[in-house]
Design brief:
With about 400 residues, the protein is an alpha+beta fold. It is built from ten helices and 16 strands. It has two domains: about 180 residues, 2-Layer Sandwich (Beta-Lactamase), CATH 3.30.450; about 220 residues, 4-Layer Sandwich (Phosphatase 2c, domain 1). Strand 4 and strand 5 form a beta hairpin. The longest helix has 30 residues.
């Protein structure tokens, strides 16, 4: 029984690592404006070599339907009839039996829709070998997401050639939204060790804020929050690469925080060439010893409330991407008391203005944390955002606004 659980966890970790590497490859290619052929080569490698699919068809609609990728399937593709057969599929569908001989060759149909209209279909199949994932255990929604990213990126290139600027922008926003779905953890823990909750409101359709919770084992965890300068698809792509780099590096080995920050700074400098930077806070928490180690790279100072005292976590270094090399990195260390509350946030909260152009400010946030810290973190976050709504009145949120709250038992 224990061996089965260990095998399951290893399989899940392997899939997660494949997903992050896949996302990193695709976003890098899009960010550097690689050709359609190169995008398809990367997509083909992900499907065949990383995910183990033996057969794939990628149908893409521009002015007409085209089969832009074929792997392991030698039959003819009737582009007049096949899209009609596929049009009834609106969600990911496992193929059990079909009147179509072609569809019977595949195990899953993955539709890519844009404004409720089909933009692409990906058909996949694999043989279950001794080192292959069973198709039902694959994260097919993730496969749908990267299919969407590739399909829309290819569509953007076509629109750019035609000079359809606004439609291209809309497509780029769609790509960025798909990427942003992958930035945030799907679940945050509430258990005997900790209670964690987050709340995020992007200023526009996409934003440049990011937070994450990464278990390193049964007793050790990474908590982080970041904000990229600038907005739009370039900011979303940069943050997607940034998140994937963090998770990929931590999968292979537990690094000391200064080394991790140096590596991340190199990545940001290389990706942005000095045009953007990222403020970043990262903490390493040991639930057994209750020790918290952290580095603050130019981010808003997280607020720790314990033993009826407020501590601002400001030890660290400059923001990432500002300098080619970080001149010095200092690591903060704290011993957390039972029921200590740590609140990470982005500048959209403390710089939110009311109708008199007065900012919400850190001091006001601290008072609310003191008042509501005895609640569970989700309730505290909801109350803080209700106070933000009252504060801004008829004003709009002027920036992305994120809060990431943690209580340690």
């Amino acid at each position: 029984m224990v061996e089965k659980k260990i095998l399951l966890l290893e399989t899940q970790n392997q899939l997660k690592e494949i997903q992050l590497n896949s996302l990193l490859e695709l976003t890098s290619a899009i960010n550097t404006n690689e050709s359609t052929d190169q995008l398809l080569r990367i997509f083909s490698f992900i499907l065949k070599e990383q995910l183990g699919f033996q057969k794939t068809l990628f149908l893409h609609r521009q002015e007409s339907w085209n089969c832009i990728l074929k792997i392991g399937y030698k039959g003819k593709v009737n582009l007049d009839e096949l899209p009609k057969d596929l049009s009834r599929f609106r969600d990911i569908t496992m193929v059990e039996s079909s009147n179509s001989e072609l569809l019977n060759e595949f195990q899953a149909i993955i539709p890519v829709l844009h404004q409720e209209k089909p933009l692409a279909y990906v058909l996949v199949s694999k043989n279950s070998g001794p080192n292959q994932f069973d198709i039902e255990s694959l994260n097919l929604p993730f496969l749908q997401t990267i299919s969407n990213i590739v399909a829309v990126a290819i569509e953007n290139k076509t629109l750019a050639k035609k000079g359809l600027v606004q439609e291209r922008i809309n497509k780029e926003l769609e790509v960025a939204r798909e990427l942003q779905k992958l930035l945030f953890p799907a679940e945050l823990p509430t258990n005997k060790k900790m209670d964690i909750s987050a709340h995020y409101i992007p200023r526009h359709a996409i934003g440049g804020d990011y937070y994450d919770f990464i278990p390193l084992g049964d007793e050790e965890y990474i908590l982080c929050i970041a904000d990229v300068s600038g907005k739009g698809i370039s900011a979303a792509l940069l943050m997607a690469n940034f998140q994937a780099t963090i998770r990929t590096v931590l999968k292979y080995q537990k690094f000391e925080l200064p080394f991790l920050l140096e590596e991340l700074n190199k990545k940001v400098v290389h990706a942005t060439q000095g045009e953007k930077f990222i403020t970043f806070f990262i903490a390493h928490y040991n639930a057994f010893t209750h020790e918290l180690k952290y580095v603050n790279a130019g981010h808003n100072h997280p607020i720790l409330y314990q033993d009826k005292e407020i501590i601002l976590l400001e030890t660290g270094c400059t923001g990432l991407g500002m300098l080619d090399e970080l001149p010095s990195i200092k690591v903060g260390r704290l011993k957390l008391s039972p029921n200590a509350t740590l609140v990470l946030y982005t500048d959209g909260i403390v710089e939110l203005e009311n109708e008199n152009q007065e900012q919400f400010e850190v001091e006001r946030l601290i008072e609310f944390i003191k008042s509501y810290s005895q609640l569970n973190m989700e309730d505290m976050n909801n109350l803080i955002f209700s106070k933000l709504e009252q504060w801004k009145g008829t004003q709009k949120y002027d920036d992305d606004t994120a809060i990431f709250s943690c209580k340690f038992f």
